[in-house]
Predict the 3D structure of the following.
Amino acid sequence: MIQDKNVQSPIHSGFNAQSTSWDVIKGIDLTGKTVIITGGYAGIGLETTKTLVSAGAQVIVPARDIEKARKNLSGVQNIEFELLDLMDPQSIDAFAEKFIASGKKLDLLINNAGIMWVPLRRDSRGIESQLATNYLGQFHLTARLWPALKKANGARVISVSSYGHQMAPFNFEDPNFEHREYQTLLGYGQSKTACNLFAVELDARGKAFNVRAYSVHPGSVYGTDLGREEPIDLFKQIGTHDEDGNIKPEVEARLKTIPQGAATTVWCATSPLLHDIGGVYCENCDIAEIDHGQIEHRFDDPATIRGVQSYSLDKQNAEHLWKLSEEMVGIPFNIG
């Protein structure tokens, strides 16, 4: 059973694929709001941080490399930096414990950090690195920060997902590639499917406490370092780059800018249109259309890279993943 199709459908927000985070934030006042943004010091995360600060928010940026974070956010006010490594459970616990001890409420948790195109790597528990970073670390972090989210009485949790969820459903039998050949895009795809399912189940459990959850596809964005480990031959194969390894001008012209890539995250975090809606997958500053096969996808035309697969909205899958996630991270996520 998928998420209610009447919920997972566009609501004509007034914004579109060309809208920027700065367009979306106009008229929004975040004074007195506390925000945590993982990966909030690079790419679309950096733009998200700057945008929310501009609206008055106090933003905490957890980072593995605090010096890099300080450098990238130099001159930006109302920022705090804390050490956090999403591949390290003890680091997650230490970060969350410090925040909970502060007594602050948490109005927005933006699970933005992510990796892609990486070779097979595992964390100290043997968990595949894309699953650990893109999903399980964020599940763990959200669980530990839950008391502060409830305290906000109106919090939102945004998980930055991807069209990449269409590459793979979640493999419940072998999520860590212990019994099947590792393929990096299958690992990436299932980690992003997990983000979507997490939003479905977190919203279902959390809305009684006025916490809503969303997953986001930023779009195909030019200028981030997400694909830094991708072999150039793969770019050539999908038609985005020429034989010399340069991005084709006609493809570059269709890609989103970083401010456009950050827009849907900011929209999900702040839009009053979502006050009574949650558990949905969003793109282009609106709720996405379910892909039943009616959308023709062409990687040389980023505008066609859209839509959400119903398996990543399935409520039974979402419940199953929640229980499995608790087992894999070794902690209960107590909502009540």
About this structure: The mean pLDDT is 92. Strands lie at 34-37, 58-63, 79-83, 108-111, 156-160, 212-217, 280-283, 286-287.
